[in-house]
Amino acid sequence: MQDLMHIGEFCHLIGGYAAEIDNVGEQMLLTNFLQMTGNYGYYIGANDMPNEGYFVQLYSRKPASNVQWAPGHPNLPGENEDCVQATQAGLINVECGQLSKYVCEIPVLEEEEIAFNF
């Protein structure tokens, strides 16, 4: 378990970054995993620290706009809940200092991107 500030460092060490949800299909895959394992919340790589109420992905810096929030989320601005967790009910915003499980995203190279040296 880590807080959000250390997740990016760990994910980088294993060749990835804190998971980013780019579309509803990716979120459904993560939600299905959470339901199958009975787990509740995992940090993903999104927050609204730079601009309250405007959630962005940590790695790509793209808006976190193609996501489904859990009912009642995101909470009202000013509640100091700047980080995002994926849950069985959808995404929720939480305080960043909480220790939590997390998801790393590790890119897979396409065949044409693999270079061989002979």
TrEMBL record:
Species name: Plakobranchus ocellatus
InterPro entries: C-type_lectin-like (IPR001304), C-type_lectin-like/link_sf (IPR016186), C-type_lectin_CS (IPR018378), CTDL_fold (IPR016187)
PROSITE patterns found in the cross-reference section: C_TYPE_LECTIN_1 (PS00615), C_TYPE_LECTIN_2 (PS50041)
Pfam families: Lectin_C
Domain named C-type lectin: residues: 10-105
Gene3D superfamilies the record matches: Mannose-Binding Protein A, subunit A
Keyword annotations from UniProtKB, A to Z: Disulfide bond
Lineage, top ranks: Eukaryota, Metazoa, Spiralia, Lophotrochozoa, Mollusca
Protein name stated in the entry: Collectin-11
